[in-house]
Amino acid sequence: MNLRAVFFLLLVILTMGCTGVHITKSMNNTIVHTLYSATSNIHLVIHKGIYFLVDGDESKIENHLEALDIKPEQISFLVITHGHPDHSGAAAYFKEKHGIKIIAGKGDQQIINSGKLNKLCSTSALGDLVYSAVPKEFKAFNADVFINEETSLAEYGIDGTTYPIPSHTEGSIAIVVDGLAFVGDIIRGKAMAKRTPALHFYQCDVTRNEEVINEALT
Ligand SMILES: [Zn+2]
Questions:
Q1: 124 C-alpha to ligand 1 centroid (Å)
Q2: C-alpha of residue 169 to centroid of ligand 1, in Å
Q3: Spatial contact of 173 and 164, defined as CB atoms under 8 Å apart
Q4: How far is the CA of 83 from the centre of ligand 1 (A)?
Q5: How far, in Å, CA of 150 to CA of 179, rounded?
Q6: I need a surface site. Which of 29, 65, 84, 179 has the fewest CB within 10 A?
Q7: From first to last of its 218 residues, what are the pLDDT tens digits of the chain?
Q8: Which residues are close to ligand 1, an ion, with C-beta < 5 A?
Q9: CA dihedral 118, 97, 55, 63 (to 10 degrees)
Q10: How far is the CA of 36 from the CAs of 64, 126, 150, 180, in angstroms?
Q11: Residue 32, domain extent
């Protein structure tokens, strides 16, 4: 492991917390189990008895589900907030092994169909430093549903909506259910203060990113 990879690993640990920690929150008709992964937050959402996942980075997510006594067959669909390996990496696995429907942003179709990042836009010297250590490939897949406009999730039994939020990637999407918003990487928590928001290390359109965050808050 080279120096950049070691630094990246330390950064990940400081920024995202420990692997395998489950945090559960509830809001009205919704329960959210946040399964901390290595580089991203993966959420299992239970809304009015319907189970779905927001993001997934690798097949060992099944271990997290097992710890919650939840079987993959109980998952109705998986929403991918954007086509980066730490968010999309488990989509092919869940689709091929369990036939789980995948929902993703239309703007990221080329990325998820190829399994390769076409660009990663650094916003800081830190982003530049760890760039070479950031994973850039994952198992390609195709989504069953592509989102390119505000779309209701009513047909899945969910009182919720998905929105395009292009900025981190062209096809980033947000999911809002019961007043809870899952926004992928349009924002991050600071390294030593996770609840303090900060500009993500990689944003391809910083101006649009600010607009997207302001829109989400109104
Ligand atoms: Zn990302």
A1: 15
A2: 7
A3: yes
A4: 7
A5: 16
A6: 179
A7: 344 443 333 333 333 433 456 788 888 899 999 886 667 788 999 999 999 999 988 767 888 888 889 999 999 999 999 999 989 999 999 999 999 999 999 999 999 999 998 788 899 888 888 888 888 899 999 999 999 999 999 999 999 999 999 989 999 999 999 989 899 998 888 777 777 888 888 988 889 888 888 887 77
A8: 84, 185
A9: -130
A10: 9, 22, 28, 18
A11: 3-217
CA 34 to centroid of ligand 1, rounded, Å:
17
Task: Give the integer Cα–Cα distance in Å for 10 and 5.
Answer: 9
Can you read off the two tokens belonging to residue 215? 């829109």
Cα(187) to centroid(ligand 1), Å: 10
Q: Which two tokens stand for residue 145?
A: 């549903």
Alpha helices in the chain (DSSP H): 3-16, 61-67, 85-88, 91-98, 109-114, 125-130, 206-217
Tally of domains within the chain: 1
User: Structure tokens of 172?
Assistant: 């980033």
Q: Token match 């039994």: residue?
A: 157
Cα 82 to middle of ligand 1, angstroms = 7
Question: How is the beta sheet containing 50-54 ordered, strand by strand?
Answer: 22-27, 30-36, 41-47, 50-54, 75-79, 101-105, 145-147
DSSP 136: -
CATH classification of the domain holding 203: 3.60.15.10
Distance 87 CA to ligand 1 centre (A): 7
Which residues fall within 8 angstroms of residue 71, CB to CB, at 6 or more apart? 65
